[in-house]
Amino acid sequence: MNEPSPLAAARAVTVEHARSLARSGHLAEAADLLEPLCAEADPGTAPHMLLACVYAQQGRWWDADRIWAAAQELGMGTPAVAAARRRVALLGEQGRRSAPWGRWLPAATAFLAVAALVLLVDVWRDDRTIREASAAPPVVSPRSSRTVSSLADVRPEVAGAQVERSAGELSVTFPRGLFSRGATLSSDGRATLGRLGGALRAHAGRLNVLVIGHTDPRPPGPDSGFATNAELGELRAAVVREALRSASGLSTSAFTLSTLADAASAAGDGRSARTVTLRISPAGAR
């Protein structure tokens, strides 16, 4: 097997770096990395498809649609891409014909957000080419020393939660899970989030929280009310946001929602997979 050229390897590393940023909710930074690559890469390739998903997550639906259209013209589209494009077209058509906008825009936008998350899960899983390149370099930020110190007094270590500290970020996981079924919090899960919110309350004005929903690998049942695991993971993230917002005093704008659905093997199976991951960072760091 031929080794990738240095240029191809460098591009693969950049795509993986952007993928990692997108997973963490750093969408603007991911777009900044991908846009120069896409100016040189062929339509339908990994940089373009990842950038389209990033645009969709940012609400830039027509920018995403332009990339998806180019991929479809080359026969490289997927059913998920086709479904998302149909919704974008419907969004434009209803925007021209309907008034007031408020009657249809929230529902259409919510559907597209879930569609984008489904596409992102697919893109995140497609690491075969990336693994042939070297690992992505660490993010070097001039804020590093400042952000580390600004989180030093944030103590989210509460019963039921596990905390890992890294440069400028706290990762909080819940080994015993949070949900009894679907998107219904268990009594233990609700109590854990209440304790965590109380620990964050003193810092409510200076934190951002990325909430990443997880599910187990089994597809939702026909009576579950969820079409896909991505939809279930997104709703779990939203439920946790509301519980934490109420307990901590953080504003809704301090939260970003995402999902890996069943793509994160670290989430485990069964009860332990009915959970979320939190990534807490200083306000303004994203």
Written overview of the protein:
The chain is globular, with a radius of gyration of 20 Å. Strands 1-2-7-5-6 form a five-stranded mixed sheet. A two-stranded antiparallel ribbon has the order 3-4. A hairpin with a 2-residue loop joins strand 1 and strand 2. The longest helix is centred in the middle third of the chain and has 21 residues. It is of the alpha+beta class. The protein folds into two domains: 127 residues, no CATH class; 139 residues, 2-Layer Sandwich (60s Ribosomal Protein L30, Chain: A), CATH 3.30.1330.60. Helix 1 packs parallel to helix 3 and helix 5 packs antiparallel against helix 6. The protein is built from nine helices and seven strands. This is Type VI secretion system protein ImpK. InterPro entries: Bact_OuterMem_StrucFunc, OmpA-like, OmpA-like_sf. Keywords: Membrane, Transmembrane, Transmembrane helix.
